[in-house]
Amino acid sequence: MTSRMTGAIAVLAGIGLLVLTGCTSTPAPSPTATATASPTPTPRPTPTTSTPPTAAADCATVFTDDENAQLASDGLTPRDPPSPLGPVMQEMIAQGGVGCQWGDDSRDDAVWFAQVPLTPAEVDQAKNLLNLGGFDETGDPLPGSYRAPDGYDANYRPLINITDGVMYFVSEPRLLTSVAALQ
User: Which residue of 14, 36, 42, 124 sits 20 to 30 Å from the alpha carbon of 150, by its own alpha carbon?
Assistant: First the structure.
């Protein structure tokens, strides 16, 4: 139901409030008004068949074998639990998504990844809210990619991608092409 938000609604409501200054909650009433026209997607959070992308993914398998080898070669090891990179990743994890971090204690270097499934209605809301939250739709390196606004984080400007009903978060754009599910 609406109290159990997955993906876009919860994630991007946080983006709108935390990334933009002076953002109002005007976008929330619009989806509520259209929710009367789409009661069918609302029951979708209950079937677990929409969650296998999240359930199947874990930090050892989210990236390709080549990327996992590169992370190891760079001396980056998994951090459990991850320390989320900003409000979007934090909310994705809070909504039941997968969140991962690899780091090196000897230097200030880390990589972050998160993913969360979305219902079809949430995909449209997510795209709208990303634009409202200051994310730029780049389509690069893959279609459906949005770059975080300047100032999202002091050291990183992450990328969000929405493909096939799943929202992906990577700390560096180059990592998106190494996400195993996007191959």
Answer: 124
